[in-house]
Amino acid sequence: MTETAQPDVTQSAPDLKALHAAVVYNPIKVELDDVRAAVQEAETAAGWGETRWYETSVDDPGEGVTKKALKEGASVVMAAGGDGTVRAVAESLRGTGVPIGLLPSGTGNLLARNLDLDLAHMPGSVVSAFTGKDRAIDLGVFEAELPDGKRERRVFLVMAGLGLDARMIANTNDDLKAKVGWLAYVDAIARSLRGHNRVRLRYKLDDRPVRAMRVNTLLIGNCGSLPANILLLPEAAVDDGIFDIVALRPEGFFGWVQIWVKIVWENGVLRRSAVGRKLMSMTREVRTLRYLKGKRLAIRLERPEEYELDGDAYGKAIAIRTWVDPGALLVRIPQESEIDSDQDAGEAKQSADVPQ
User: Fold this and answer.
1) Burial of residue 271 (number of CB atoms within 10 Å: 0-12, 13-18, 19+)
2) Which among 283, 312, 276, 159 has a CA at the least distance from the CA of 221?
3) pLDDT above 70 covers what percent of the chain?
4) Which of 37, 128, 208, 244 is the most buried (most CB within 10 A)?
5) How far is CA 210 from the centre of its chain?
6) Quick one: average pLDDT of 336-344?
7) Cβ contact 156:192 at 8 Å
8) Would you say 280 and 309 are in contact if contact means Cβ atoms under 8 Å apart?
9) Does domain 140-327 have CATH number 2.60.200.40?
């Protein structure tokens, strides 16, 4: 009896040396020698090829060099800088299937905070970039119509804001922020409150009718947490395909007190325990805060207003359109992380025309 030869089904191990990472870094925000040392140690341990380095600049905060890294075959792109660097890298990685690795730096680290990543151990974040797993998260796409009629389109990962929030960021002294971090916003708030603080707008949320609203601040959230462990949008999830939106509408000092109690006390303290949540169910909603949910939002403003994305000011807009791009970005997280995304990636749906 002749024995039939069996095909060789053994798969060869992937050639890790053929893989390489990229680091897009802001030279002002990072201690480059420390990052280089951590990356070299991690790439050697993982068996990858030599990492390539791309420096941001005023003219290119990250989008251009990230596209160059992709063209040169990067398997993961680490963002080393502030929230602006992370946003710029994410914009160019959108929909490519190449993950972003988050290296804590700067004062915000907003996305890393919302993903519960370790902000205290940069070498561990580098190791995760080489050996971790990928989590798909949503991106917010934001199109601004400028006062001169031009349009600009960007993405955001955490929040977009209009009104006092954006004016505060625009008024923040960068030198002071570099010295004292988020305390610099106290000075910015004081200066912002001196001017006009009412924003009149018309908006269309998904397929609902056009509505009018007057706000102090409007925040559109892909995530819910801010620095100092402030939980602004308690129901926001980074991979649910939905924006959580909050309108702040205080009337005088007492209105600000109500907002403080709602955000800092109820969201930050009571919501964290069963007893606290029961107490919350017994309280009434306040008029100073209005929460909305939706996938697409179009806004027409009464006058040009400042807007911000992930903590950076981008000027003034007379109208905006924003929508969710579900699962559009892969984030490299530690293998032992218990947080996984159950949201399938989808195609972004364009929002309705801005109400006229």
Assistant:
1) middle
2) 159
3) 69
4) 128
5) 27
6) 49
7) no
8) no
9) yes
Residue 89 has what pLDDT? 98
Q: Are the C-beta atoms of 217 and 205 separated by less than 8 Å?
A: no
Sort strands 289-294 and 159-163 into parallel, antiparallel or unpaired.
unpaired
| Averaged pLDDT of the chain | 80
Both structure tokens of 286 = 């306040």
Angle between helices 32-46 and 122-131 (to 10 degrees): 40
pLDDT at 111 over 90: yes
6 to 11, 12, 64: CA distances (angstroms): 15, 17, 51
Judged by phi (left if over 0) then psi (alpha if -120 to 50, else beta), residue 284 lies in: beta
Report DSSP state, residue 280.
H
The domain locations on the chain are 16-131, 140-327
Alpha helices by DSSP H, 94-163: 110-114, 122-131
How confident is the model at residue 21, as a pLDDT? Answer: 98
Amino acid type, 39 = V
Q: Which two tokens stand for residue 355?
A: 């109400």
Which residues are CB-neighbours of 148 under 8 A, at least 6 positions away? none
CB 235 within 8 A of CB 224: yes
The first and second tokens of residue 258, run together, are 């109500």
Tell me, which fold does domain 16-131 have in CATH? Rossmann fold (3.40.50)
User: Given this model, what pLDDT does residue 134 score?
Assistant: 97
Contacting residues for 27 by C-beta, under 8 A, at least 6 apart:
55, 56
Token pair recorded at residue 352: 């309705």
- Residue 52's closest CA among 43, 60, 64, 61? 43
Average pLDDT (208-224) is: 93
d(CA 275, CA 284): 17
* DSSP-derived secondary structure for 125-177: HHHHHHH-EEEEEEEEEEEEE-TTS-EEEEEESSEEEEEHHHHHHHT--HHHH
Please say whether the beta carbons of 56 and 27 come within 8 A: yes
Q: Single out the residue of 264, 238, 263 nearest to residue 329, CA to CA.
A: 238
> What is the C-alpha separation between 16 and 330, in angstroms, rounded?
20
Is residue 217 a contact partner of residue 248, using CB atoms and an 8 Å limit? Answer: yes
Residue appearing with tokens 């056009």 = 210
